[in-house]
Design brief:
heterodimer; A: mainly alpha; Cytochrome C Oxidase, Chain A; 15 helices; globular; disordered C terminus; B: Immunoglobulin-like; Cytochrome Bc1 Complex, Chain D, domain 2; 12 strands; elongated
Chain lengths: 551, 337
């Protein structure tokens, strides 16, 4: 994406985009909104790299034989797809772009608590990203994003240490963002903005930040141990030296399961805002939705070993982790029911963000309910490490998190850019993404129950799996188009879009009470909050006919 | 392409029906939950769509509703949890008298050896209607032994044994997959499970066997000089191994362990780790000196000289029977304490 976000007009109000120009005014900025845009550009870049790998994976699986790429290349493709999408797109996506932009504005603050640390976290992300790119360019890694020991420690010939360090560095970016949010939400709320008046987007980001702070150090430790084992043969994971390969899995999933909630909780926050706005209603069961985020953050730390039911763990441990997995499913279910109930007696508008929110609701429900299958011990034995798992987590992480991210981008784009995107194209894109997604991933549930293992590049031993794979690949091309469209019309709108008013949706929330795009310090004067969140009874319907605002 | 398009996996073991029953139950329950949510969303979205002049009605929430839609799913979850656990315990508990097959996984092949001595690569012949227990280990990375038609899967780890079991119900040839990513040719680490009628199986079994696994184990036991210390009387410098399998063993550090396959394996490869009480740490490690197949043969031999059926010892110790006193292993006073 171009750095020239808006074309200056002589009479335009001063805002964060036109206050200063030049590369350094961006690269040395401490404005949370500019940093959010830096993140937006960088994660979009990584999203399309990861997406390109996904496309190659799907093309390889079009035929049973391994005929497009070689085995090692395929193994590197799915490894890099996973590492790029998880650590360089999904984890930073909503928090670092929308969260960065909106957390201070939603609580009426001028910036985050530590603006320079915020910039530092972007640089750490970029350093990690450059390392990952370098690692891919010099040959890539074939350990799978899960880099299980002893394969990663003693067997792979690929450059795991560099990829590991890239994740390690990017992890600190994630920790610092979490730290910044926690401090900001605690200390910098506007007068009158009590915890019970906070938008649920803030609650979701608060819960996410806690996981980032407490979980991410564990993956850092794990990476250091793997690197040390690889370089120095310490015998931590290698059974020949008295180590335990299962220890690796416990350490890895202790972070990597909560990491799923780092990806999905912010999307839940986004969807909550959208549903409230386009139903013109206060969210149903505010405190239940708020505390379910905290419950997910807490219980999320107690279920990691449900990834290990066939790993060789004790059956009694499996029993406990299966039970706790059902416990963590409950707060998610509560959220879904509250969102649904919010629609009741609403005044529902079908603008593009709401279509994405509906898409999220459908896909997240399917993703969540298939999690119940995997948490059931007897079924997990059969479907774990098959395409059933692949389908399940893509429903959560792509159907859920990416739908939420796109919904949020559409919802707040007028605020971010000061421009309106073409509504018709946006609705079309939402529809294409929804259809393409289901066509790609639903067949994978069937493949999984049939028994197709994941991470196979060649299935000529079982050609009966081809039809479903062809469907999935066809869906992936549709999905690819669906993802390219928003990028095209967002870029288009920056130059040609109609200027947005301050509050084009007539949405509640402090971020809509300032200009679009906002001034550098967000508010001309510090807001004082005297109302509850989602006070839609006081707001009119969204402006259906946007009239350019004379400025 | 379309004439071979299954949507449901074959059912070929006693466990398959159990797993499928739970799966179908979940499909129905979750399908209903999905339909219910979707129906409400679609109905509300249509019924309460924006109409000019009609405003939304603000509703704070309802604790009664929240409790209802937490409690009902929780009860359903607990049913699924309990049912899943029952199936899992069945899957994880091999019958005591199962036929044993030793599996060694390596990048990128499966090596299988029947207790009777038949060896196979990437193929396993089993009879219909007999319990088969797989005792598995890996020579390198983690693999996973997966037979979709039997609905069983178990990771295969280096440095220890893991087990899984099945009873095939239908003759045929079924897929064997490695389900844990293991490197370059992971997708080539596939094979066939050949389920035969007992008569055919016997015929296959009688062709070209080199004698039972325990016999090769006995030979290795002699070749490696194990018998020098592990004598059949009480005079040896190492414990007498007659009858030791499946019994509790008291260790030098005061713990008591059950002498199962994993313990025997560990004692061969890392003798100092769990030394039997009353013996000196004089046994050398055989790590790197014996192959996984030779370890398997040794374990099979030691099991063969224990009269008790495998598994019975474990049951005894679970019931809290007194551990075998170290004196029963130990030579009279010939050990320097």
């Amino acid at each position: 994406m171009s750095m020239e976000i808006a074309i200056p007009k002589p009479v335009e109000r001063e805002n964060y985009l036109n206050k200063e120009y030049g590369v350094w005014s961006w690269l040395l900025t401490t404005d949370h909104k500019r940093i959010a845009l830096l993140y937006l550009i960088s994660i979009t870049f990584f999203f399309f790299i990861g997406g390109f790998f996904a496309l190659l994976i799907r093309l390889e699986l079009l035929t049973p034989a391994g005929d497009l790429v070689q085995a090692d290349t395929y193994n590197k493709l799915f490894t890099q797809h996973g590492m790029v999408m998880i650590f360089f797109f999904l984890i930073p996506s909503i928090p670092a772009v929308l969260g960065n932009f909106l957390v201070p504005m939603m609580i009426g603050a001028k910036d985050l608590a530590f603006p320079r640390i915020n910039l530092l976290s972007w640089y750490l992300y970029i350093i990690g990203g450059v390392m990952m790119l370098h690692c891919m360019l010099i040959g890539g890694v074939d350990t799978g994003w899960t880099f299980y020991a002893p394969f990663s420690t003693n067997f792979t010939n690929s450059n795991f240490i560099e990829a590991g360090l890239a994740i390690f560095v990017a992890g600190f970016s994630s920790i610092l963002t979490g730290l910044n949010f926690v401090v900001t939400i605690h200390r910098m709320r506007a007068p009158g903005l009590t915890w019970s008046r906070l938008p649920l987007f803030i609650w979701a980001h608060y819960a996410t930040s806690i996981i980032q702070l407490l979980g991410t150090p564990v993956i850092a430790v794990t990476i250091v141990l793997v690197a040390a084992e690889r370089g120095l043969h310490l015998g931590i994971f290698d059974p020949k030296l008295g180590g335990d390969p299962l220890l690796f899995q416990h350490l890895f999933w202790f972070y990597s399961h909560p990491a799923v909630y780092i990806m999905i909780l912010p999307a839940m926050g986004v969807v909550t805002e959208i549903i409230a706005c386009f139903s013109r209603k206060r969210i149903f069961g505010y405190s239940f939705v708020a505390f379910s985020s905290i419950a997910i953050a807490v219980f999320g730390f107690l279920v990691w070993a449900h990834h290990m039911f066939v790993a060789g763990m004790s059956v009694y441990a499996a029993l406990v982790f299966s039970f706790l997995s059902y416990a963590v499913a409950l707060p998610s279910a509560i959220k879904v029911f509250n969102w649904t109930a919010t629609l009741y007696k609403g005044s529902i508008h079908y603008d593009a963000p709401m279509l994405y929110a509906f898409g999220f609701l459908g896909l997240f429900t399917i993703g969540g309910l298939t999690g119940l299958f995997l948490a059931a011990l007897g079924i997990d034995v059969h479907v774990t490490d098959t395409y059933f798992v692949v389908a399940h987590f893509h429903y959560i992480m792509v159907g859920g998190a990416v739908m939420g991210y796109l919904g949020g981008m559409h919802f707040w784009w007028p605020k971010i850019s000061g421009r309106l995107y073409p509504e018709g194209w946006a609705r079309l894109a939402a529809l294409i993404v929804f259809i393409g997604f289901n066509l790609t991933f639903f067949p994978q549930f069937l493949l999984g129950y049939l028994g197709m293992p994941r991470r196979y590049y060649d299935y000529s031993h079982m050609p009966e799996f081809q039809v479903l794979n062809v469907l999935s690949t066809a869906g992936a091309t549709v999905l690819g188009v669906g993802y390219l469209l928003p990028m095209v019309y967002f870029l288009w709108s920056m130059r040609y879009g109609k200027p947005a008013s301050d509050n084009p949706w007539n949405a509640a929330g402090l971020e809509w009470k300032t200009a679009s795009p906002p001034p550098t310090f967000n508010f001309d004067e510090e807001p004082i909050v005297t109302w509850e969140a989602y006070n839609y009874e006081e707001l009119d319907a969204p402006h259906k006919q946007e009239v350019p605002v004379a400025r | 392409m379309l004439n071979n398009f299954p949507l449901w996996p074959q059912q070929a073991s006693t466990l398959a029906g159990r797993v499928d029953a739970l799966y179908i139950f979940l499909l129905i329950v979750c399908g209903m939950m999905t339909l219910l949510v979707f129906a409400f969303v679609v109905f509300f979205a249509a019924r309460f769509r924006h109409r000019p002049g009609v405003r939304a009605e603000q509703i704070e929430g309802s604790t009664a509703l929240e409790i209802t839609w937490s409690a009902i799913p929780f009860v359903i979850f607990m049913v699924i949890f309990a049912w899943g656990a029952v199936v899992y315990f069945k899957e994880r508990t091999p019958p005591a008298d199962a036929t044993e097959v030793y599996v060694v996984a390596k990048q990128w092949m499966w090596k299988l050896e029947h207790a009777e001595g038949q060896r196979e690569i990437n193929e396993l012949h089993v009879p219909v209607g007999r319990d088969v227990k797989l005792i598995m280990t890996s020579q390198d990375v983690i693999h996973s032994f997966y037979i979709p038609a039997f609905r069983i899967k178990q990771d295969v780890l280096p440095g220890r044994y893991t087990v899984e079991w099945f009873r095939a119900t239908k003759p045929g040839v079924y897929h064997l997959f490695c389900a844990e990513y293991c490197g370059t040719q992971h997708s080539g680490m596939v094979g066939d499970i050949v389920v035969q009628e007992p008569a055919q199986y016997e015929a296959w079994m009688n062709g070209g066997s080199t004698g039972p696994l325990s016999a090769s184990g006995e030979k290795i036991f002699a070749e490696l000089g194990c018998a020098t210390c592990h004598r059949n009387d009480t005079q040896g410098r190492g414990p007498n191994l007659q009858g030791v399998f499946g019994k509790p063993v008291q260790l030098e550090d005061g713990r008591t362990v059950n002498a199962d396959e994993n313990y025997l394996r560990e004692c061969i490869l890392d003798p100092g780790a769990k030394r039997v009480k009353g013996f000196q740490p004089i046994m050398p490690t055989f790590q790197g000196l014996v192959s996984e197949e030779q370890v398997n043969a040794l374990v099979a031999y030691i099991k063969s000289i224990s009269p008790a059926k495998p598994g019975e010892g474990a049951k005894t110790s679970a019931k809290g029977a007194a551990p075998l006193a170290p004196q029963e292993f130990r030579p009279n006073g010939s050990q320097v304490q």
